[in-house]
Amino acid sequence: MKKIILFFTFSVLTVYGLFAQSGQASNNFNVVDSVRPSPYNLYGNQFPRIEADRRVTFKFYAPNAQKVQVSIVNVPYDMTKEENGVWTYTSEPQDLGYHNYWMVVDGAVVVDPATNGFIGYSHLCNGFEIPDPDGGFYALKDVPHGNVLLKNYYSTVANSWRQIFVYTPPDYEQNIQKRYPVLYLQHGGGEDQRVWIEMGRTNLILDNLIAEGKITPFIVVMETSAVTQRSIVPGPPAPRPTIPGAAGTPGAPAGGSRPGGMFGMSGPGGGIYGQLMTTDLIPWVDKTFRTLSDQKNRAMAGLSMGAMQTRTVTLANLDKFSYIGMFSGGTIAPADITDKSKVRLIFMSYGSRERGSESVKAAADALNEAGIKSVSYVSPLTAHEFQSWRRSLKEFALLLFKD
Amino acid sequence: MKKIILFFTFSVLTVYGLFAQSGQASNNFNVVDSVRPSPYNLYGNQFPRIEADRRVTFKFYAPNAQKVQVSIVNVPYDMTKEENGVWTYTSEPQDLGYHNYWMVVDGAVVVDPATNGFIGYSHLCNGFEIPDPDGGFYALKDVPHGNVLLKNYYSTVANSWRQIFVYTPPDYEQNIQKRYPVLYLQHGGGEDQRVWIEMGRTNLILDNLIAEGKITPFIVVMETSAVTQRSIVPGPPAPRPTIPGAAGTPGAPAGGSRPGGMFGMSGPGGGIYGQLMTTDLIPWVDKTFRTLSDQKNRAMAGLSMGAMQTRTVTLANLDKFSYIGMFSGGTIAPADITDKSKVRLIFMSYGSRERGSESVKAAADALNEAGIKSVSYVSPLTAHEFQSWRRSLKEFALLLFKD
Fold first, then answer.
1. Of B105, B107, B272, Cβ closest to residue A110
2. Is the pLDDT reported for residue B124 higher than 60?
3. CA distances (Å), B2 to each of B8, B12, B15, B121, B331, in order?
4. A contacts of B16 (beta carbons < 8 Å)
5. Least confident stretch, A20-34, B29-43, B259-273, B365-379
6. Which residues lie below 8 Å from residue B126, measured CB to CB, with a gap of 6+?
7. Measured between CA atoms, how close is A65 to chain B, in angstroms?
């Protein structure tokens, strides 16, 4: 009985958090312990609806369509037409956390107007969220909150303005003499700088860890990677980039540790993106925010393609980065490190459902044996999705800037 | 010739600005003087494409659909099927500025995955942008930029967390003893707190005016109105709320000045939303930011439904607000004001294509004759859309907190 009460209390907090984070706020949003609308639904829409057993029911109005599918994490499922022009589908039980979805109407990949839009798979997507009983670490709670800032800066390397998100810790505004370490945090392929806030809940994860006194407060900078010019119109959406370690669902291809030349990762200085970071982004951040700008107070991490970017940029710039985090994007071997005295920590993680998850412990062991401090982490029962990366960020944050 | 060069330079700035503001940044975005992709297109998509004569070409892949329409500002237009499953449509010349659109595939209202998502009409929409030769006031320029902050606060009136946007001026971080006036800025029906940043470009408008020394720097708070629980699933999207003054396109119904009881506007204290503002929001803002918290340094304005909310909240709380701005949402008469000594300015505006535009000058004249300072403004050749409201915000900002 006590367990049930605790779970209910937790669920209320979680749902409020997700709801506020989603960009919506309503005094009419009814929190139900079991069946509930997904928190990203706009304007009180009841569907997608999260069922008590983690199944999800979708409804979609398409009166004249011949065939309607809902694509959940890029796998299409046929919907059934009801009498009033509404199509319906109830899924198998879903993993905990955030999932992308979209609709396919008579062959057209489209976005459901009923939820907020999220970037993924190189196009606009829908999203839904399965509450996690252990997800309190990313809930919006009544603790001091840091700032999430939308900032624009000009990059000479890219020759354009670039919009970024910056997180500053809760005490940044109060301790106006204090300086902070910085984590540069990269999104995955087909995404952009928004995802670590909108799906990753970076600000809430760090607010909560800081409130519990578990981490050293730091600034987070979320940039956009170099963007490729793939087009989804005309023609069907481009597939998620084929990259080592980007295994998503069970049965997807095995991961590896060697990034290719895509996404500005080839060339000197960590490729174009490394050049952008060292020439424009880092100097601008150090000028604009009260940072600790020495090498031992600068970290970089990323998910999937962003992990490989992190690998490429940091290994080419070990004079600038001391902490390296790779979430679902390969591993680093001792031979990859030119100067092991520079590396304070290499963190490597995967979701347990990903191929690659079996590789990180051995990779960390090899680094530790070579005298390079390394920690591995496997997120239980999650795939190539944000629940793996929320947990990875938390585990990585616990280790950052500690000595 | 000189004119052409100036226009080209301006266009480059504008497009960069829009692009960065849209949440995307790319070094591969090719600025073309005439034909160009809309700046909100994701991942290098070429369509929607803005033609040199302000027509817009849409392409949409729907291989098995029987009928595809593109709905531009809520008016559907039939597209033509080409051989490869791609449907196409080139519009009539569009007004300058931001416009919503979406797709209708075999009767299903859907969102095009090719552009960023925007909230409007109580659901997710697409957007495109027609460059305005006089739009430099909302371009991203190399001037000091204020901060745009995503903040969460807890409302006891709504009994929930609420996410808001806050703009602080460029010198807020530097002049750490200085306090600032505050403008509370409301969105329209079927929208939420994001629109004044994402479509309204509030931060860039104020950055530019401050850089030119034309306005008194102030903080802007963008909240969500009370949200009604209309559902678009199952069933077609709910229409834009029928509200006085919400005329959108030529021929839409005439506006008026009397808000109804919807959207938390009935009841004491300016309705539920007025109670939320005075009980929770304003005290939280005055505690969290360095505000000038007296009545003469507090303004409220809004667009459409937000204008009527502004009217309702301010007239019931004249001890708390001295500046009142109503953009495309009715007028105020002398008899509505209980204590005219409290009012420093009433600003009323419309787009010239809106019914209601003919009423604001007479309404302002009546207020001025009654000893209540009032200014009216009509935005040339714009409708019930954001170009009217960007311009209205600029004109209102020029008058705020000046004595």
1. B105
2. yes
3. 10, 16, 20, 42, 43
4. 160-161
5. A20-34
6. B40, B48, B100, B101, B102, B103, B111, B112, B114, B115, B116, B117, B118
7. 5
Judged by DSSP in three states, A197 sits in helix
* pLDDT tens by residue, A339-373: 999 999 999 999 999 999 999 999 999 999 999 99
Q: What integer best gives the mean pLDDT of chain A?
A: 85
Candidates 3.30.360.10, 3.90.1150.10, 3.40.50.1820, 3.40.50.1460; CATH matching B140-227+263-397:
3.40.50.1820
Please give the backbone phi and psi of residue B347, each rounded to the nearest 5 degrees, phi first: -110, 130
For B21-130, CATH number out of 3.40.50.720, 3.30.300.30, 3.30.750.24, 2.60.40.10 equals: 2.60.40.10
Q: Coil, strand or helix: which one is A103?
A: strand
CB-count exposure of residue A63 (10 Å: 0-12, 13-18, 19+): middle
Q: Distance between CA atoms of B317 and B313, rounded to whole angstroms?
A: 6
User: Whole-structure pTM over 0.90, yes or no?
Assistant: no
Of B127, B143, B129, B298, nearest to B206 by C-alpha is B143
- The dihedral through the CA atoms of A71, A72, A78, A80 has a sign that is negative
ipTM of the complex, rounded to two decimals: 0.84
Q: Are A108 and B105 in contact (CB < 8 Å)?
A: yes
Q: What is the mean pLDDT of residues B251-276?
A: 59
Q: Which of A147, A148, A192 sits opposite B23 (nearest CB)?
A: A192
- Using CA atoms of A327, A331, A336, A339 in order, give the dihedral in degrees to the nearest 10: 50
The CATH 2.60.40.10 portion of chain A extends over: 21-130
- Give residue A265's pLDDT: 73
Query: How many Å lie between the alpha carbon of B146 and the closest alpha carbon of chain A?
Result: 8
**Beta bridge partners of residue A374, listed in sequence order:** A346
Closest-approach residue (CA) in chain B for A68: B108
B23 contact residues in A (CB cutoff 8 A): 119, 163, 192-194
- List, for residues B94-113, the tens digit of each pLDDT value: 999 999 999 999 999 999 99
What digits encode the pLDDT tens for the residues B196-209?
Answer: 999 999 999 999 99
